[in-house]
Specification:
2 copies of one chain form a homodimer.
Chain A: E1 4-14, H1 22-28, E2 33-38, H2 42-45, H3 48-58, E3 62-66, H4 75-87, E4 92-97, H5 99-111, E5 134-138, E6 150-155, E7 160-165, E8 173-176, H6 186-204, H7 212-234, H8 239-253, H9 266-278, H10 282-297, H11 302-311, H12 322-339, H13 346-349, H14 356-363, H15 378-390
Parallel strand pairs in A: 1-8, 2-3, 2-4, 4-5, 5-8
Antiparallel strand pairs in A: 6-7
Helix pairs in contact in A: 1-3, 4-5, 6-7, 6-8, 6-10, 7-8, 9-10, 9-14, 10-12, 10-15, 11-12, 14-15
Chain lengths: 393, 393
């Protein structure tokens, strides 16, 4: 196991009606002039936004609303938020939405206290030194942004998707009410589930030996998702199934299951070019990319793939031919994704094989490699996109 | 799943040589005049205490040493620590040791900022309102106190063992260096492992339905302990096995695997009277009590016991007679404890059957019941002690 620091100071407030605590929580963490940042109209229509602002009013707080965050959130909207924060002396951002909303709230939070362009921090490794405090009211279990310090946003000019991260961007609190997901369409629910499972797999496929505890914790999240996801697709208002997925989504990405081990984020990187170019859902892109990546890199450590096949997918171990077990596990994953309604190839996603050179170019590997479980050069990535293009059950 | 709040703001600094960061960590969290509170002479002999104080000196901090914490830590030593804090204007407590040391550091931390007797907070539910900040350098994976807000201490007069808890008592940071456990004798290693597993079981046996995610996370910790504990008993200097156990011990008790579900702490309560009366190791007492408790309460939810037997102990499911599977799981647990060198009955622990009435009386149930997975009255507890007294493989 590798050395590590783990720090997750977010207060998670989980359960029915917890959004009504938003006001007292903002106050507890020092907010007085609040930017309420939300995504789609559904937060308004469902009455959620009203309950949140009522709660802010009961706590005696001033607030300004900023709606209209899109999936794969854009820099233009973020710049609007930053301008409001500076103009109105905002001292707390309350993000009401999913990963796109929370990720762009984090971008606003760091941009509001920075004189230059917030984009300076994305894809550059430039360390964040200051940021406004943020809180979240989560509406979809997926990105894990409610418990992480990470943020991924898209630059409209060229549709480049880039990320940043800092402990300063970890939410002070996150309100998790599983019932807020009752109205979530099956497709978005499945996209979220895929993202959660991908967050675990990106940690699971490691070159670090002797990581039993985090292996087992990763497997725990995967087993939960395999059981609970079909239940919510079938029965969207199943509170307990939604609740199990919601906590799984947070634990999957606050890194408690991923510490002390090398991680591999190449599937996420390879996918980001798909959702950047086609504006498709990130989870749907992952459903196409991740099993393809697995097939391509499987030989790097067949026994690790066999382990997950047996422990998570319930495959029989083929002791004479572990590669068969490994392959059976990847097949089980792709079948699972198909069964919950996810695309499994380019055609189903709406991507085009002829764009592969462009996708590879945008990823910006050049003559180098992307490090990870298996280092990948431009040719490797091309082949992964090709496997993804043609995948079938 | 039940509603819950989860808040674990401790910074965990994990790996080789991390104790050399003690000084900078104390400084980061605002300490300037430090009480260094440590347990046995082994911290001195091993050179650990010297490395910690060197680190404090490098950070320019003033410190006072207070050693001699005993297992089942006593109020007299705690009062000594409180007096020093008040006299010397201590503003940070650095606890170098295991659970007993950290638990009594927490008692000192709350007592130092309280005008009355610190014992007012123990076993009474009186809320902690202020406490000095503490940090820890952990020397044994066991109690999980390095990541929790709980504290258990013993009153010498009558040897009463009582607890308190508050988020204010959560350490600001905890330094976890698995190599510090290389010199730990096999018996103490096994006691620690038993305590860790008990912390998980106390959460696992719940009356809350639909808690798949935390069930799976609990099982992950148990599976890790089953694999790694025999390895460190065999090979005490196996860094990776020690590391897996150390992180398992922290995750087992910071409650991320126990949120949203009713928990049962009766085995801990029943054990505390044993270690209170006989001054035996808490883990050893748990090894005697917990399987006995399981046998006694098994009928409350046979399928839950069958689930853990299959998923954790690898038993075959007897679909016609699930109670056989449940029993096989409990037997596997007791055999595991025996194999790592733990006592499994009163004789092996050094306890006496004729003391059972006294143990029950000290537990203070009276005519009431202790709530939990199965509510227990005085007669139930008597029978559990009797099973424990006579247990065999």
């Amino acid at each position: 196991m590798n050395s590590f620091n783990f720090y997750s100071p977010t207060e998670f407030v989980f359960g029915q009606d917890t959004e009504n605590q938003s006001g007292s929580l903002v106050k507890k963490y020092g907010g007085s002039r609040v930017l309420v940042h939300y995504g789609s109209g559904s937060a308004v229509r469902s009455g959620l936004l009203g309950r949140v602002t009522d709660s802010l009013e009961r706590a005696g707080l001033t607030y300004i609303l900023l709606g209209g965050v899109q999936p794969n959130p854009r820099d233009t909207k973020i710049r609007e938020g930053i301008a409001i924060c500076k103009q109105e002396n905002i001292d707390f951002i309350l993000s009401v939405g999913g990963g796109s909303c929370i990720d762009s709230s984090k971008a606003i939070a760091l941009g509001a206290l920075y004189d230059g362009d917030f984009w300076d921090f994305y894809g550059t490794g430039k360390p964040v030194e200051r940021a406004l405090p943020i809180g979240t009211v989560l509406t979809i279990a997926a990105a894990g942004s409610e418990g992480s310090g990470a943020s991924v946003v898209t630059k409209e000019d060229g549709m480049e998707k880039r990320d940043t991260g800092s402990d300063l961007l970890r939410p002070k609190f996150s309100v998790l009410n599983p019932a807020l997901m009752f109205t979530l369409p099956a497709y978005q629910t499945a996209c979220g589930a895929t993202d959660i499972m991908a967050h675990v797999f990106e940690r699971y496929f490691t070159t670090t030996p002797e990581v039993e505890v985090t292996d087992r914790l990763c497997e725990a999240i995967l087993l939960t998702m395999i059981k609970e996801t079909p239940r919510v697709i079938e029965d969207p208002c199943n509170y307990d199934a939604r609740a199990n997925i919601m906590w799984a989504g947070t634990v999957a990405h606050n890194d408690i299951v991923g510490v002390g081990r090398a991680q591999d984020w190449n599937s996420h990187g390879i996918e980001h070019e798909l959702s950047g170019l086609y504006d498709c859902a990130h989870g749907a892109g992952l459903a196409v990319v991740m099993p393809a990546w697995m097939e391509y890199v499987m030989d790097t450590d067949v026994m690790r793939f066999a382990q997950v096949a047996v422990r998570v997918w319930g495959c029989e171990m083929d002791y004479a031919h572990p590669e068969n077990t490994a392959r059976a596990g990847i097949r089980a994953f792709r079948t699972f994704l198909h069964n919950i309604g996810m695309p499994i190839n380019f055609a189903e996603l709406g991507a085009k094989e002829e764009d592969i050179p462009l996708l590879v170019e945008k990823l910006g590997i050049g003559d180098g490699v992307r490090n990870g479980f298996r280092p990948l050069n431009a040719e490797d990535v091309t082949r992964i996109y090709q496997i993804a293009a043609h995948a079938s059950l």
